[in-house]
Amino acid sequence: MTPQAVDGVARVLVIVMGLLFGSFLNVVIARVPAGESIVRPRSRCPHCGRQLTWFENIPVLSWLALRGRCRGCHAPISWRYPLIELLTAALFFACQRRFGWTPELVLALVFVLLLVPLAFIDLEHWILPQELTWPGIAAGVVLSVPLGIPRLIDSVIGAVAGFLVFWAMEWLGEKIFKKEALGAGDKDLLALIGAFLSWKALLGVIFLSSLQGAVVGSVMLLIYGRAGPAPEEDTDAAPAPTPEADAPAALEAVPGPEATPPEAAREEEEEDDWVPGPTNIPFGPWLAVAALEVMLLGPWLSEVLPVPMNVLLTGLR
Ligand SMILES: [Zn+2]
Fold first, then answer.
1. Which DSSP string corresponds to 242-259?
2. Angle of CA points 275, 219, 283, to nearest 5°
3. How far is the centre of ligand 1, averaged over its atoms, from the C-alpha of 73 (Å)?
4. Nearest to 289 by CA among 171, 225, 220, 209
5. Ligand 1 centroid distance, CA of 6 (Å)
6. Which residues contact 178 (CB under 8 A, 6 or more apart)?
7. What is the DSSP letter of 262?
8. Which residue, 32, 88, 253, 292, shows the most beta carbons closer than 10 Å to its own?
9. How far is the CA of 234 from the centre of ligand 1 (A)?
10. How does this protein sit in the membrane (predicted)?
11. Domain spans in the chain, listed from the N-terminal domain onward
């Protein structure tokens, strides 16, 4: 085989790996917020509980072949499953194009495998589980080792700075606005982004995520009357398992999105009883989008932007 052919086959393998890992991320997104194991049992239909056979588990193709319905009970299977598989494959492909066959590609792929589930879990449950963010921060630092000592130092500074910046913003928000503007998990996610992309990317990530979150949130607020996703979602196809009983119960106690949670309950168990108001947006997905933009489009951004903007956004000299 010619070197070009080998390269082509390797790229197809990266895409196939993206599809397979995307399929696994669907399991992570469904089970981690519920505190369930991601290794066993095997995947089941969330409606009838029927165990899926191997040919019902083929990324994208199974969903298309079954026309988005369970083979047993014919309940619809969410389009989120093939979407996450395709998204992961596309991001894997983009990472390969950006970094070639380098150690930085490994770092980028692992980063994608953390950002995709974190973004979708935050979008649905308004949490960024520490089961993902904390090992993720460690992975970002460890995977920076092959990139050399300077990058390793930048990674450690990035993790610490990411945590401290949001901690400071949170502290200011509580002192000045007397309310919680950022979720507790956002600190961990920014630390994770700092560990993977180094501190140089943090300013750009904060800028892009705030800007895009504010613009899209405002448009959503105008159209739908709320900036973020509704706290209570239609569980027609989502595999929301029952062990997570306390959260939906807390939501049912509140009649509508306009109602605020009782103060006492809020102070008692802040994390569990907090209900997102109409102007709240989950910030994790926006941080994830901005981090991917800076990582994948950094060189392109540095060409099209004037130099000062460029330094601010991508950390490039
Ligand atoms: Zn079924």
1. GGGTHHHHHHHTS-STTS
2. 45
3. 4
4. 209
5. 41
6. none
7. P
8. 88
9. 17
10. Multi-pass membrane protein
11. 1-101, 105-231+276-317
